[in-house]
Amino acid sequence: MSLMTEIAILVLAAFVGFEVISKVPTTLHTPLMSQTNAIHGIVMLGGLIVVGYANDPLEYVIGTIAVIFGAINIVGGFMVTDRMLGMFSKKPKPKADADKKGGA
Amino acid sequence: MLLAVLKPGGDAATALYIVAFSLFIIGLKRGTHPTSAKQGNMIAAVGMAVAVATTLLLDGMGNWGLIVIGLAVGSAIGFVASVRVQMTEMPQMVALYNGVGGGAVALIAWSELRHGISLGGDIPLEELIPTLLAAVIGSVSFWGSNIAFAKLQDLIPTRPLSVPGQQVINAVLLVGIVAACVDIAVNNGNPSQALFIGILIAAALLGNLVVLPIGGADMPVVISLLNAFTGLSAAAAGFALDNVALIVAGTLVGSSGTILTMEMATAMNRSVGNILFAGFGGAPASGGGGSTEERPHVSIGAQDAAIKLAYADTVVIVPGYGLAVAQAQHAIKEVADELEKRGVTVNYAIHPVAGRMPGHMNVLLAEADVPYEQLREMEDINPEMPRTDVAVIVGANDVTNPAAKNDPDSPIAGMPIIEVDQAQQVIVIKRSLSPGFAGIDNDLFYEANTSMLFDDAKKAAADIAAEIQNL
Fold first, then answer.
1. Is residue B215 a part of any domain in this protein?
2. Which of A60, B14, B295, B460 could form a disulfide with B455 if both were Cys (CB 3.0 to 4.6 A apart)?
3. How many domains does one find in chain B?
4. H/E run at residue B317
5. Looking at the whole model, is its pTM more than 0.90?
6. Contact A27 B35 (CB under 8 A)
C-alpha cells in the first residue's frame, strides 16, 4: 500500500469514527471506553508478527510481552464491556461468555 | 503446525482485515443504544477474532510455543481482571488497559526498528517516522496511564504532585525527544538503537511528569486523553507495519478518545491545555475560597429528610463521586424504590463529570438496577428543576455550586452545573461542609431552602429508606 493510500484510509476512518462515536449517549461512555480499549488490542497483531518471525532472544521477549499486553486488552476489554452492558439491559439474560476469548 | 496459507500483505489477508475493521465499526454503531450495545460488543469481538486468526495464518509464522504462552497469559489476566473488577474501579481498569495498549505499541515499534537495522538499515522514512511516533506516543501513554492508575487506586496521592521547574523539564524532554527522532530519521541508513532506547526512556519520563501534577478531579479528562493517545499510537504502528486493520482500529479509538476528552473539558469549562499544564487545586484559588468562617445552615436528620421526600411529587437525585466512594448506589436505589411505591416520580440527574471517568456514574447506578430511562443528562433535567419538589444531592459538590453561574470571579465560573438551586427544596447528604475538589465553598449549602444531612452517604440513605417505610 502506498503512503497516500494509507493516509486516505486514516482520514476516512477518522470521519467515520467521529460520526459514529459522537452519537453514543453519555450513559454509555464508560462501556464505550472499555470497548475501545478492547479494539485497541488490535495491536496484538503486531506483537504476534514480532514473535512469529523473531529469531533472537530479545525479540522473543519483546514480542511475547506485546502479545500478553494485547491479549489483556482484547479479552479484558470485551469481557468487562459485556459485563457492564449486561447491567444496562433490563432483564439479565443467561450468560454467553464462551465465544469471545479474542480468538485465542 | 497450523495451516500457513496467507501471504503477509497479500490480498487475502488484507481482505480479512477489512472484514475485521468493518465489524468494529458495526459494533461501535450498535453501541449508540443501551439495548443494542451488548450485541454490538459481540460483533466487535468477532471482528477481533477474525483479525487475530488471519494473523496466525500468515505464511512463515513460527515460535508457536511463545505465541500460545503470550495468548494464554494475557487472556487469563484479562479474564480474571474483568470478572473481579468492581464497578467503582472501572476508571483504574481503563487506565491500566490504556497503559498496556500503549506499552505494546512501544515494544512493537522497538522491534520494528531492530528489524530494520538487522536488514542493513536504510529504513524508508514512510516506515521509520511512524515507528518513531508509535514509540514516543506508546511510551508516554504507558507511563502516563500507570501514574493515572496509581492515583486512582490511591497508591500515590491524588493531589497534584509537581517538582520545581516542571514545565522547563517537560519542555527539555520534549525538545530532546524531537531532536533524537530527527537524528534517527536523518541517519536512516544506519539508525542508532541506543538513541532509540533513549527516546523510549525520555518519553517514559515525560509520561510520568505530565500526569503526576494532575489532580484527582481531572482524571476523567486524563483517562480520555490517554485513550486517544493509545489509539493514535496504534494507527502509527499500522503505518509502520503496513497493516490496514491497525490503521483503522487505531483511528477509531483515537476519535473516540478525542470526542470524550473534548466533552469532559467542556463539562468542566476548562481547556485541555489548562488541565494538563495548570495543575488544578495547586493553582491559587482566587475569590470564594477565603471565607472559612462558619455560615448559618440548616441541619436535619434522616426522619425529616424522609418526610420531605415521601410527601413530594417529584424528586431528583443528584449523585456524585462521594456516592461511589461510599458504595451507596444500592442504598439510594432503595430510597427511590420506597418513594416510587408511594407514587413519587424519581429521576437521577447525572453531571457529565460525575464519577472519575466519562459515564462512570451511569454504570454505577445501572449496577444497582436503576433503569436507564431514569438516568437523565444535565441539559435534559435542568429545565425541570423549578418543577422539582426535592433535589437530593448525594456525594456531589462542585457540580451543584450556583457560584458557577452567579459569581464571575469564582474559579469554577462558567462550568455547567445541575441547577438544584432552582428546585423547591434541596437536601444535601454529606459528611461535613468541607469543600469539593475545586477547593471552594458551596453557596448552595447556605441557601434558605437547603437542608444538610451530615452522615455517610450509605448509612444516611439506608436510614432514610427505613424511615420512609415507617411513615
1. yes
2. B460
3. 3
4. strand B314-319
5. no
6. no
